[in-house]
Automatic annotation (TrEMBL):
Record-listed E.C. numbers: 2.7.13.3
Domain of life: Bacteria
First-tier enzyme category under EC: transferase
Pfam families: DUF7134, HATPase_c, HisKA_3
Keyword terms: ATP-binding, Kinase, Membrane, Nucleotide-binding, Phosphoprotein, Transferase, Transmembrane, Transmembrane helix, Two-component regulatory system
Stretches that traverse the bilayer: 6-25, 32-49, 55-85, 97-114, 120-138
One GO MF term: kinase activity
Descriptive protein name: histidine kinase
Domain Histidine kinase positions: 286-383
Reaction equation(s) it catalyzes: ATP + protein L-histidine = ADP + protein N-phospho-L-histidine
Keyword DNA repair found: no
Organism of origin: Amycolatopsis bullii
Database matches in InterPro entries: DUF7134, HATPase_C_sf, HATPase_dom, His_kinase_dom, Sensor_HK_TwoCompSys, Sig_transdc_His_kin_sub3_dim/P
Statement: the UniProt record of this protein carries the keyword Nucleotide-binding: yes
């Protein structure tokens, strides 16, 4: 409104100067100052509000312009109507602009017929040219404003989509890290608990066996700490530089995993087919599924249980089968009302299922035919082209 106020003041001062010049020249039909000054002020005042209230301002200008033009007080009426037509088109819309132009044409034609009938053609041409000029300018500025509004809306939408994508990426990364932490901690702690129990039984009768168990606990704990530090470094650091990090385990590290499980007291029969070059994510998923399955065998299958791991690739599909002959081999011997701790629903099984599903695979978990337990996973191989 500041710019419009300056414009209105300048227009009003110009009309007052014209009125003063007419008074000094002693021209006939000059209205008295107490009529001319209020009419001039009333003519330019609505222009201050032409952006805030375009319709109200425009119709007040139209009414006052009839009096202003009849008294021939200057250019305020012509300039005010031109600015009003422009403002209505830009700030109110085409429909309101057409209605207002119709009112301006009707008022101008009626005034020309009553005051200057001999100049009707010239007045009509001048009116048509002025309306066309103001309407064209209003359309141009209105289109520009609509374009700016559309650009702002698109930018806001892009920012919203970017924020949403960031939240989704953060949630996915948190889920991945949670699965990694669970797999690392659950496996290491299970091995350490089993070895600690064995050492407590053998510490008196077989010190050498207890010593080996303590060594296994120490090695397992150090390995788990190393993996935890690696995960925490990823969370803490945004830099790719610095100390080299230990690579994530993959399907080719299953032999080391089987050796650690044998040391922990679970004989593992490992059979690996020709896996070739697997994508890093699929290879890590295979390793973690086997690790969680063997950890469950260690925790729940009981003493004397053995495990079998089969990993084979056929075309673009990798099949993982982990089974054990757990204690209480016949599933029907589980007491009624007692839920097997390895039934789907635990965090470990949920993590395995998520790992399979994230790569478009499937996971089946349940009692094996004839007793024991088995985990079967199929993962499609999608190599980057």
């Amino acid at each position: 409104m500041a710019g419009d106020s300056v414009l209105a003041v300048l227009l009003g001062l110009f009309d007052l100067l014209l009125f003063a010049a007419d008074g000094l020249a002693e021209l006939p039909d000059v209205p008295p100052w107490y009529v001319a000054v209020p009419v001039n002020i009333a003519m330019v005042t609505p222009l201050v509000f032409r952006r805030k209230s375009p319709l109200w301002s425009a119709y007040v200008v139209l009414v006052v312009s009839v009096v202003h033009a009849s008294l021939m007080l200057g250019i305020g009426s012509v300039a005010g109507l031109a600015m009003s037509i422009y403002s209505v088109v830009v700030y109110a819309g085409r429909r309101q602009g057409l209605v207002y132009v119709g009112a301006v044409v009707a008022a101008s034609v009626l005034q020309a017929v009553l005051d200057r009938p001999d100049e009707l053609v010239i007045s009509a041409l001048f009116l048509a040219f002025g309306i066309a000029l103001c309407w064209t300018l209003g359309e141009f500025v209105g289109a520009r404003r609509a374009y700016d509004v559309e650009v702002e809306a698109r930018l806001h939408l892009l920012e919203t989509e970017r924020d949403q994508a960031t939240r989704i990426a953060v949630a996915e990364e948190r889920g991945r890290i949670a699965r990694e932490l669970h797999d690392v901690v659950a496996h290491a702690v299970s091995v350490m608990v089993v070895q600690a129990d064995g050492a407590s039984y053998a510490i008196q009768s077989n010190p050498e066996l207890a010593h080996r168990a303590l060594q296994t606990i120490s090695e397992t704990g150090r390995g788990a700490l190393g993996e935890l530090r690696r995960l925490l470094d990823v969370l803490r650091s945004d830099d790719a530089d610095g100390e080299p990090r230990v690579p994530q385990p993959d399907a080719h590290a299953l032999a080391d995993l089987a050796d650690r499980m044998r040391t922990a007291g679970v004989p593992v029969d490992l059979e690996l087919g020709e896996l070739g070059d697997l994508p890093a994510g699929v290879s890590l998923g295979i390793y973690r599924i086997v690790q969680e399955s063997l950890t469950n065998t260690l925790k729940h299958a009981g003493r004397g249980a053995t495990a079998s791991v089969r990993v084979h690739r056929t075309g673009d599909l990798v099949e993982v089968l982990v089974s054990d002959d757990g204690a209480g081999r016949v599933p029907q011997l589980v007491p009624a009302g007692r839920r097997d701790p390895r039934l789907p629903g635990g965090n470990g099984l949920i993590g395995m299922r998520e790992r399979a599903h994230v790569y478009g695979g499937k996971l089946d978990v349940g009692p094996a035919p004839g007793g024991g337990w088995q985990v079967r996973a199929t993962l499609p191989v999608r190599l980057d082209k």
